[in-house]
Predict the structure.
Amino acid sequence: MLIWRSKISTVNSPFSLGTFVKHLPASNLNPIPSKFNFKTSRKTQSFTATAILRTSHFQTLTQQQQQQVNLYVHSLLQWNQKMNLTAVKDENEVMERHVEDSLAIIEPLRSSYLSHCQSSCENLNLVDVGSGAGLPGLILAIACPGWKVALLESMQKRCVFLEHAVGVMGLSNVQIIRERAENLGQKPRFREVFDVAVARAVAEMRVLAEYCLPLVRVGGLFVAAKGHDPQEEVKRAERAVNLMGASALQICTVESHSKHGQRTAIICLKDGTTPKRYPRNPGTPAKLPL
């Protein structure tokens, strides 16, 4: 049986949404550049029971999935010592603030997709725009192994971490794409092909709409993970969402146990094609929001 190791994709490399690579076990991965080498400490290896018990969504995962989350958290905290992946430096807080919040958007995403897209959500093609450290994309890929998850990230060093994390966890349903959203949205093989686009902690809604919706197929969803009171942000984004060929469906309160307060998922339905002029050139959406 042939086993393939992934490479970070760029828009200059062939990519098929239907073809996702398998990874070698972590012990067989190519050496990571020296500046990214870490030794796993005993403290890091011992994942705290407190963190696990506080996260109800985590407990719904299988034992294998829980172990994959465990490996992800360990890798994130180790690599965070050398590069800026997250401001969170504590295991419990990573579980509560990142893992729990990422798992919490699955139920509203599934519910909205079944209600408004008239299709099964067992085999979604999903893109995580501005994935950063892989949140929420990697957590969604663990929890929903039938989904094909593309992690879109423009920074090379973060893509190196993402490739490492995917290999360590042994995920076969993840593709890493190093590119800006504004560029990817103008590429024919990526434009309007994803069932769902998600984004967390990337930008305000009117900017996110231009990043994400050109990638979503007509009839698909755009889901933005936000804080407890996004109504004003949603109102400001109405024009941008409409220009992208979509409409705001609902603001869902998600069941999160994070101490950082109530979380929401803003869900938009792509009910028309995005005009060819969008997304605009890199940097323009953030500088001149619609």
